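Notes to self after the call with IL:
- keep both proteins in one doc
- input above output, always
- annotate only the second one for now

Protein 1:
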Amino acid sequence: MSNFFDDIYRQSKQTVALLFVNIASFKQRLASSAIAMLSIACVSAVILAVLTMTSGMMKTLERSGLDSTLLIMRAGAVSELQSVMFPAEVKILANHPMVQKDSDNKAIYAAEMFVSAQANMLDDKGSQSTEKLALRGISQQTYTFRPNFKLSEGSLFQSGLREVIIGAALARKMPQLRVGSSVTLGTCKWLITGIFSDNNSVFESEIWADVAMVQSDYQRGNTIQSLRLAIKPQADVAAMEQAFEKDPRINVRLMLEKDYFASQGEDLTRLIRWIGFPVALIMALGAVIAALNTMYSSIATRRTEIATQKAIGFMPQAILVAILLEGLFIAFIGGLFGVLPLYFAFDNLVTSSQNANNLSQMMFNFDVSPFLMTQALTLSLMIGLLGGLLPALKAMRLPVTLALRSQ
């Protein structure tokens, strides 16, 4: 047993000594190692970007919606944009016994419009731009369903006027949208009276206006697109759904608002992963090949050095571990080159994504967290390990006489 621990101690000392030798001579192999570092840096940057975008979208959507709010749309609609409902249906749904009442014994509900509006605006230089933005027509009851709503600048819009308030994320992304300026939505000009925040939820990507004015400008009559009901804590959503299905006067689908936004997030992040991860996988294979070439080239130019190390008593296992650690070192440096620029350039940056369900933009923050950076660096180290394993095994098995004779 003592011989076993002596061998482990000896191998460890030799590995450390060889590692210092390899690092000291690393500058002579810097040019060839730079290709592997660059490849690994690109892979880690792409992976971190995909993870960051996915995380940012999910956090934004997770902050949206309440567990106590029932969202109702037309049956078959996958988003508010595809739905249409009529006042008679709203009255039937709002009168359900599981809907909460206010102090005046009136049902607590909010009927809303949702439009993917073409917004025309001027920047500070006078040039015009056009964007597809989410316009939500709301009533005073809507604020009841937004407990995190806070007016951060300006004032609320006045009912009956073409006035809007805009979300904070939208204001950060498009600084030309500020209090006191105007934005053309469709064919009409609207005055921006305020900017609101809502705990970084998806609602911060929207423009809010009086529902009656939105109905009028977009010629929707008295129809709405979604209904939000405040349900009692003991409400059975499944039982409510069965009751509504049996009522021939209505044809709707219902779900908790929290679940609705969670499903929206799954659709968006799935699209990013389908695009991002295959690209990253192909790049990772290229990085492994680059690391293999680098380490094989390094061993080919150090055959005599490795043979000499074996001849003077260095254990093959120590040589293998030292070369593996060199590969990991190259991968770690490459990973840092990919991760750190992304962190300093994009952390907390506001960006947007086109939501395929409602055809408008959703703003979210790049959140380059330490956890995601660690994941990207871990992948880089795995690439370095795979790229260094075969060359390290070759170096360990290299016959001393053959290596010396080849020189």
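Protein 2 (the one to annotate):
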Amino acid sequence: MPVKPSLAKNSLFNIALQLCTVVIPLLSSMYVSRTILPDGLGEIATVDNLVSYFTALAPLGIPAYGIRAISRARDDEEELSRTFSELVVLNAVSTVLFLVVYAAVLFLLFGGAPPTLYLIYGSLIVSNVLNIEWLFSGLEQFAYISIRGIAVKTLVFALTVLLVRSPEDIYLYAALTCLATVSNYFVNVLSAHRWTRLTLREINPLRHMRPVLVLAGTIVLFSIYTKIDVTLLGIMCPSAVVAYYSYAYKAEEIGKSLCTAVTSVYTPRLSYEFVNDRAEHSRLLGQAMLLNVYIALPMALGVCVTAPRLVLLLFGEAFAPAVLTLQLFSMLIVAKSIGNVIYQNVISTGGERFQLVAYAAGCVVNIALNLLLIPTFQQNGAVVATVVTEIVLDCILVYFTKDSLTMGFTPSFVFSTGMGLVVLGVVASVCTYCIGNDLVGILVSVVFGALGYAAAGIILKNEMALLLSAELRKLKRRHL
């Protein structure tokens, strides 16, 4: 029986990668906003927005489906090679198709001379042929994924600071932005031979079409659901309102990314155990749910308490109206974290058709609520619409997958987590009130609030606090 990678170790690697994914773009944005300037960045954002539709659709649903397919085939070398090869062929055909569509769109928009930025960003579509990230995720090679990702992101950031010096360097900056993605794909291809091989003998890519197309449909609906709020705000409100919403969302994304990073590594293991050991699948799913809730709740409370200072520190006095927006967004951290585990169950059990139904309903709910709330409450109405839609999505998926979904909540967990939140809230509020400097106040609130929350969990024997403490001690012993 192959040795299963440590989920705790994979989680730590994934958290490190997510931190890097959040911090480096933030630092890069602070730098290029002062060199490329708003006009140039606006051009890049416009091109990136168009290309993002093609980069989302070109791989169909393979990035999600591939994790499940690879994880289930990993114990059989021949089946692993066959599955990998079939998905590579399917991805290549789809990429060529959407590249042709992209070229047609450029021709219709610009005739025979598309602007240079559109050609540069087109490399992201072309390079999707090399996109095999799902192979390494399915094999639970999160150490490799994280080390490679951090190295590439750091290198590209360093090149940006060294080479991008003025607004005239807009094309160089665009090329470096694309280089981060293309480099990851290229390194993956060079490394893949260590785990499997590519073959064109006795393969049948079409056997994967149904789940892949269902997931592709989900991606389309998800794109509508996640983009429609900004679109409607832009139509119905002044541009400043759009900025309040967008920047509050960026701040919320940091917390959400760190929460979901802890248990995102469970997806391949859940897919594997669903086929091989249903009891273990149920146990891991319950553990993932409790972990996400245990981490997401204090994260949301911390964002809510520190929002007045956090917004001013990150974005300045002009963004003061976004304070309430960020506080409302903090609820999305919890809803998305719970939804992430439900999504993992859907993918691991092959229930992607339920996700398609849920996102279709979510689009309707989201559009209706945005139209109802934005005229009166502006960006805050859009946040409420987003949070309510996420809760609706979670409830629909819970209904469809209730037979395979394990929640794992116990009275002991609820009580100890609640008491920990009380401690965190009191500590963070006192620190915020007593410390005048915004940066110091936030840091002290976060550190001492987290310590108080963890201590309360351990004293009250919270299952997840004890689990995290035990896993950290194990990792410490292994590396001493």
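Annotation: The mean pLDDT is 85. The chain has 17 helices and no strands.
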